[in-house]
Amino acid sequence: MELMKKRDNRLKKNSGGFTLIELIVTVAIIAIFSGVILSFIGIGSNTYRSTSSNAKVQMETQEVVDRMEDLIIDANRSVYYANGTGAAMGSAISDDIDGADSTGNKTFIVCNEYKNSDGKTSRYICDVIDWSKKEQKVYYSQREYDAASSKDDSGVQNADSEEEESENTESGLAALSDEGFSDDSAAEDSGSDISATVRNQKQTINPSVLATGIVDFHADVSKVVSDKIVRFQLSTISGTKEIKTLHSVSLRNPIKVLAPDDAFKKADATDVGIKILNAPQTMRSGESVMLTWGLTGNGSIDQSSVAWSSDIMTRGWFSPQDPTNGKLTIDPNATPGQLTVTVTAMTTDGKMISDSVVINVVV
Question: Which residues does the annotated region (Disordered) include (predicted)?
Fold first, then answer.
């Protein structure tokens, strides 16, 4: 009987539910598992967002690549690559694929000529790819030029044409503004002779975003005339890594490297000149700079004929493999003194032109 009573007492004591320690342990286990589950959910969500964002950038980048390849491969008039964007472009660029990171906006233009039904006049269509460094966006737009109707028989521009040109140019600028697309580099490149307007210019397609997340844009048009090849490079970010993709397009037609106004006018290259635009006054040993050139006067040049040189190779030099590359490097062991840098080119009518600047080399 005593044993039976003791057993009943133990059963009564154990029937009170969980002890405090058991409750604490249970809650701790639940909290740990909840934290692990929430952590997995958070990681999965972040991974999904990152993957989704990268996929969007990759899709848009591929769209830019496809669009540019389609435009370039069938071009029948000209291509043009320059600093700046919008209505005011800056200095022309021949090849900056192996150069430093871009410091401003870029423009790539493909121009085509289409004969009208009368067989005498033509429509000139320019497809424009604008890259905004600040926004990391690529814009597409289209402009139309009608050079045959820009002047009357007397050689004086018609008043109606001049008024129409002004209206079309303003509408194009307004479209750029409406898209929130600003040209931060226009002021830096104001030394170029490229005109902000071209006669009878019409904005047929207003600028629209073609791709986002494009952190840099480079191109090479130096082999257009000689090899009928255009290269361009797009840079994007995947996670924390920058990815550069290089594309090469073979041209079906022989074309030139010309700005739209040069591509459509018939004037001879009688007074065209070349000018070095951004040479520094002083450079130190071991420093490098990418020099650019611009045209003055009237006419055009064969960009594949552009060549850079220096008078003292032991003080500073350009790439011997690619003389069209304007990257100047000062020798790390250079002695102080002056260095004369020269750029030469051949005009489309066979004349040699050049420009030189003097740079002071210091240690």
Answer: 143-172
The token pair that represents 202 in the structure block: 């019409």
Counting as low any pLDDT under 70, the low residues of the chain are 1-18, 40-57, 60, 87-88, 119-121, 146-200, 262-271, 298
- Please give the CATH number for the structural domain made up of 273-362: 2.60.40.1080
Contact between 107 and 89 under an 8 Å Cβ cutoff? The reply is: yes
Domain map (residue ranges) of the chain: 50-264, 273-362
- The pTM score is 0.51
What is the model's pLDDT at position 2? 57
Distances (CA, A) of 198 to 69, 129, 161, 187, 202: 26, 18, 11, 19, 9
Structure tokens at 268: 């001879």
Is the torsion defined by CA of 258, 260, 264, 265 positive or negative? negative
